[in-house]
From TrEMBL, chain A:
Belongs to the ferredoxin--NADP reductase type 1 family. GO terms for molecular function: oxidoreductase activity. Its EC number is 1.18.1.6. The keyword Cytoplasm does not apply. This is NADPH:adrenodoxin oxidoreductase, mitochondrial.
Automatic annotation (TrEMBL), chain B:
The keyword Metal-binding applies. GO terms for biological process: P450-containing electron transport chain. GO terms for cellular component: mitochondrion. It comes from Arabidopsis suecica (Swedish thale-cress). This is 2Fe-2S ferredoxin-type iron-sulfur binding domain. PROSITE patterns: 2FE2S_FER_2 (PS51085), ADX (PS00814). GO terms for molecular function: 2 iron, 2 sulfur cluster binding; electron transfer activity; metal ion binding. Keywords: 2Fe-2S, Iron, Iron-sulfur, Metal-binding. InterPro entries: 2Fe-2S_ferredoxin-type, Adrenodoxin-like, Adrenodoxin_Fe-S_BS. It comes from the Eukaryota.
Length: 483, 197
């Protein structure tokens, strides 16, 4: 008799409160979005997670940012796909927050909304000539060669001269330098967009200058990427020996960061090797230019409205306490000629209606991922049920793995809030979202739609000896998804 | 609350049994699904892990209901060591790992929450583990430049950090304790407090 009672109690339990569905919507399907989804699903048996993205294709910068010659970095897609295929998870693409539905509508439909849509804009220099043609942000150029549907028509000018200037010395700067200088025979077997490969085959760019306003110890690039570029065949690296002298402040910085130290050592080795290499015509060169900050862009006399060079100011470093050094202008200037400039000085997030935003830092104000409504004194009041993760939360820094811990923190906050019972009302969740999208005639793309795009790209890739041939227009992507 | 506790208790039993190898891969998945637990699904695994998974399956054939293998001496021939994973809640989870298997594979075999985003290609740092005792850290081979490049960027990097995909089980590592870094906990190693990243 007691056995039946126990079984009855257990079965009654499973239909009770704690397995009542928790409706979660994550905006953005890059690493931040997927790691958040993964952790929410693992932490809460009753959670149903919808991941929406404005593109028909998931994976964010893993698909559109990681360079074509870095396929191992894209393997992360396998784990993200497993999450998307989980029975309590749905990917819904081609749905844009701010256009197809508002943030407040989303918050009405879901108990928890996590914004993980990254940073789709750029930092500006705010110097004269910035709007001349031939000047692009690295983000635009990367999206162009990676086949992002918003930038397939960029048509960057690669034929006017042999020189391109890249402002910034982080990994994005190295990526774009590498794509400009790698032999196209090597690029031909990657997933680079065909329109980019064709343009690069006709490119006259042979010299790329990576400009940093500080020194080699402060360069933002990392060892793996530097090692890679130093190892490219027939690519000559140019680094001035004088730029490599270190100050006591530099020594301090290297002491506190093993990464800095290893990068400095690599650059020193490269400078020494550069001295012995012979110059040869049609060789490709990568110049590391330190202690220079752009003052203005120069306009071409022959082609009005087009850039012909950058006016650079020499800098020296000044300590600002806490081991940090900043660049300060010396009043000495020099010109560097080029026909293309890529700004790789950092991304910036874009706010949406109804979302508290710190325009100075370019992020959503938050405490451990909980969005802050306003702050008075020490107390921060947070928006119930609204969270952030990834670059929108931390700024556009870090690597893919950084999002793992970022998501852990945000999901920790969500779990704490659930335990406190902050949401007692029931929400419509997925069902409500589908009804809304139907009403607004939004052509959503579910994960199965992405799988069709994926299959088509891979099929086309086989024909050209590439891992995939990307579909690069909205029409083609939506057509393949609906097939 | 009772049902919740029963379900957790049941899943703990299932996990424990799975670790000891008493339940076949297939059996474990079914049992855990009925407790409503989310499991990373097993079909897509890196090639290395697949063969050791097959080996593990073959070894535990004695306890599963459907077996077509003929390997009878698998258990005795492959030597195993004990690796103790310390999860973000500080819970110590000992697992048996065959010699030659990497720490990352061992974690996945035993449902330890260790990410391996690039599937052992040395292109990420998500399988970062902290060797809790410097004595064991010193027994490991020096990391290669490529591993060090990835470690440079690892969250919560310590003096005894390694990438799980590069640490291979060997007899001298028996009993090693490996902590999984967490956003909410920092692990002291031999009393040493790691610097935040």
């Amino acid at each position: 008799m007691s056995r039946y009672l126990a079984r009855y109690m257990v079965s009654r339990y499973f239909s009770s409160a704690s397995s009542r569905p928790l409706h979660v919507c994550i905006v953005g399907s890059g690493p931040a979005g997927f790691y958040t989804a993964d952790k929410v699903l693992k932490a809460h048996e009753g959670a149903h997670v919808d991941i929406i993205d404005r593109l028909p294709t998931p994976f964010g910068l893993v698909r559109s940012g990681v360079a074509p010659d870095h396929p191992e970095t894209k393997i992360a897609i396998n784990q993200f796909s497993r999450v998307a295929q989980h029975e309590r998870c749905s990917f819904i693409g081609n749905v844009k927050l701010g256009s197809d539905l508002s943030l407040s509508e989303l918050r009405d439909l879901y108990h928890v909304v996590v914004l993980a849509y990254g940073a789709e804009s750029d930092k500006d220099l705010g110097i004269p000539g910035e709007s001349l043609s031939g000047i692009y942000s690295a983000r635009e150029f990367v999206w162009w060669y990676n086949g992002h549907p918003d930038y397939s028509c960029l048509k960057p000018d690669l034929k006017t001269s042999d020189s391109a200037v890249i402002l910034g010395q982080g990994n994005v700067a190295l990526d774009v330098a590498r794509i400009l200088l790698r032999p196209t025979t090597e690029l031909a077997s990657t997933d680079i967009a065909t329109h980019a490969l064709s343009a690069l085959k006709e490119s006259s760019i042979r010299k790329v200058y990576l400009i940093g306003r500080r020194g080699p110890v402060q360069a933002a690039l990392t060892a793996k990427e530097l090692r890679e570029v130093l190892g490219i065949k027939n690519l000559h690296i140019r680094i001035k020996q004088t730029d490599l002298s270190v100050t006591p402040a530099d020594e301090e910085e290297m002491k506190t960061s093993r990464a800095r130290k290893r990068i400095y050592e690599l650059l020193s080795k490269a400078a020494a090797a550069a001295k012995t290499s012979k110059a040869d015509p049609d060789q490709r060169e990568l110049h590391f230019v330190f202690f220079r900050q752009p003052d203005q862009f120069l306009e071409s006399d022959e082609r009005k409205g087009h850039v012909s060079g950058v006016n650079l100011q020499k800098t020296i470093l000044e300590s600002v306490g806490t081991g940090k050094q900043i660049a300060v202008g010396t009043g000495e200037f020099e010109d560097l000629n080029c026909s293309m400039v890529l700004k790789a000085i950092g991304y910036k997030s874009v706010p949406v209606n109804g979302l508290p935003f710190d325009h100075k830092k370019g992020v959503v104000p938050n405490v451990k991922g909980r969005v802050v409504s306003h702050t008075s004194g020490d107390i921060s009041q947070t928006e119930p049920g609204l969270y952030v993760c990834g670059w929108l939360k931390r700024g556009p820094v870090g690597i893919i793995a950084t999002n793992l811990y970022c998501a852990e923190e945000t999901v920790g906050s969500i779990s704490e809030d659930i335990e406190e019972g902050v949401w007692k009302s029931s929400k419509a969740g997925s069902k409500g979202l589908m009804q809304l999208l139907e009403k607004r005639k939004v052509k959503k793309v579910e994960f199965s739609g992405w799988e069709k795009i994926d299959a088509k790209e891979k099929q086309m890739g086989i024909e050209r000896n590439k891992p995939r041939e990307k579909l690069v227009t909205w029409e083609d992507l939506l057509a393949a998804a609906a097939n | 609350m009772l049902g919740h506790r029963i379900s957790r208790f049941g899943s703990t039993i299932v996990k424990q049994l799975a670790r000891e190898g008493y339940i076949s891969t297939y059996g474990r998945r079914n049992l855990q699904r009925s407790y409503g637990h989310y499991l990373p699904s097993l079909p897509v695994v890196p090639r290395q892990a697949r063969t050791s998974q097959e080996a593990w399956f073959l070894k535990s054939h004695k306890f599963c209901t459907s077996s077509t293998t003929s390997s009878e001496n698998g258990d005795e021939e492959t030597e195993k060591i004990t690796i103790i994973f310390v999860d973000k809640d500080g819970e110590e989870i000992p697992v048996k790992v065959p010699i030659g298997m990497s720490v990352l594979e061992a974690a996945h075999e035993n449902d330890i929450d260790l990410e391996g985003a690039c599937e052992a290609s040395l292109a990420c740092s998500t399988c970062h583990v902290i060797v809790m005792d410097t004595e064991y850290y010193n027994k490991l081979e020096e990391p290669t430049d490529e591993e060090n490049d990835m470690l440079d960027l690892a969250f919560g990097l310590t003096e005894t950090s390694r990438l799980g995909c590069q640490v291979i089980a060997r007899p001298e590592l028996d009993g090693v304790r490996l902590a999984i870094p967490s956003a909410t906990r920092n692990f002291a190693v031999d009393g040493f407090v790691p610097k935040p990243h």
